[in-house]
């Protein structure tokens, strides 16, 4: 529930000049950024993300063999969004898992991922809720169940993106003789790793900003924050790799501990960008439509609507 007077007019509907409206939006952005505790919440998100990364890799690495997928076919896309130093640590783990499918490891990985990643989703939800300025409106059991469901959906989305990355070019090659498609299009698709990675991240962030928090927000209001975070993450991946190359070489002497520290730093910066995107979303929603309404979650609202329709 918002703190401001709910009857206050949105900025765009107030009798102000364009300059005054712009100043009002900038002030609102600064105020919401301060209220969201971006630095503190970014550290929480980074910590729980670190806990969930390797169980998540175990699950994905054991699912890919069922689709006869080669992890290296999506390596270029992953490398676009992840700094090379971190990429070099992650890929050997996936390659070792793909050598032999282990159903027992898969079940253990799912349990570990659901436990750790659901806590990460819950921390992410609480952080974005704070940015969106809503109170907790779910009981503990419902909150954990929804966090588990969101984790499963996120896992399915990641696997789906990997399948698309892998089979996208193969599908185009099959369509070339049927529809007389120039083979240059296939080569263009394989070279467009930046746009494809950007679109995948953009869709993933829309899911996070729209479905995870407990708010009734218009879909178009989360698009600017998702776009900003997508661009920010891609720039961060390249900038972070340059930093490690020229200024962070001493971390390599610490071995595994240095790798964990580097990974945690990158996750913290990524979470900061994610929180800035969430603040941008709430500022746009408030500037265009007024206060942000709290809800019990998208799943709860969907069930309630279906129940009302049946009645």
From TrEMBL:
<protein>
    <submittedName>
        <fullName>YihY/virulence factor BrkB family protein</fullName>
    </submittedName>
</protein>
<dbReference type="InterPro" id="IPR017039">
    <property type="entry name" value="Virul_fac_BrkB"/>
</dbReference>
<keyword id="KW-1133">Transmembrane helix</keyword>
<dbReference type="GO" id="GO:0005886">
    <property type="term" value="C:plasma membrane"/>
</dbReference>
<dbReference type="Pfam" id="PF03631">
    <property type="entry name" value="Virul_fac_BrkB"/>
</dbReference>
<keyword id="KW-0812">Transmembrane</keyword>
<keyword id="KW-0472">Membrane</keyword>
<keyword id="KW-1003">Cell membrane</keyword>
């Amino acid at each position: 529930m918002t703190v401001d007077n709910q009857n206050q007019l949105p900025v765009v509907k107030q009798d102000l000049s364009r300059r005054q409206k712009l100043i009002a939006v900038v002030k609102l952005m600064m105020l919401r950024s301060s209220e969201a505790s971006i630095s503190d919440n970014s550290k929480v998100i980074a910590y729980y993300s670190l806990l969930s990364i390797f169980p998540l890799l175990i699950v994905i690495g054991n699912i890919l063999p069922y689709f006869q997928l080669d992890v290296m076919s999506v390596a270029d896309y992953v490398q676009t969004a992840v700094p090379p130093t971190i990429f070099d640590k992650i890929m050997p783990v996936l390659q070792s898992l793909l050598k032999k499918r282990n159903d027992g490891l898969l079940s253990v990985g799912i349990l570990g991922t659901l436990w750790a990643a659901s806590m990460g989703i819950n921390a992410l939800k609480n952080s974005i809720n704070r940015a969106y300025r809503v109170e907790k409106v779910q009981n503990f059991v419902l909150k954990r169940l929804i966090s588990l469901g969101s984790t499963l959906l996120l896992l399915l989305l990641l696997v789906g993106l990997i399948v698309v990355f892998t089979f996208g070019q193969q599908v185009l090659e099959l369509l070339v003789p049927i529809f007389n498609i120039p083979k240059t299009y296939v080569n263009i698709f394989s070279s467009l790793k930046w746009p494809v990675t950007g679109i995948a991240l953009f869709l993933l962030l829309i899911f996070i900003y729209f479905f995870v928090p407990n708010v009734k927000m218009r879909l178009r209001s989360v698009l600017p924050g998702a776009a900003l975070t997508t661009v920010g993450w891609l720039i961060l991946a390249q900038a972070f790799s340059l930093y490690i190359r020229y200024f962070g070489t001493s971390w390599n002497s610490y071995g595994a501990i240095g790798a964990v520290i580097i990974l945690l730093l990158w996750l913290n910066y990524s979470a900061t960008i994610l929180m800035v995107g969430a603040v941008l979303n709430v500022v746009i929603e408030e500037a265009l439509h007024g206060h942000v309404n709290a809800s019990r979650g998208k799943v709860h609202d969907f069930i309630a609507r279906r129940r009302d329709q049946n009645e």
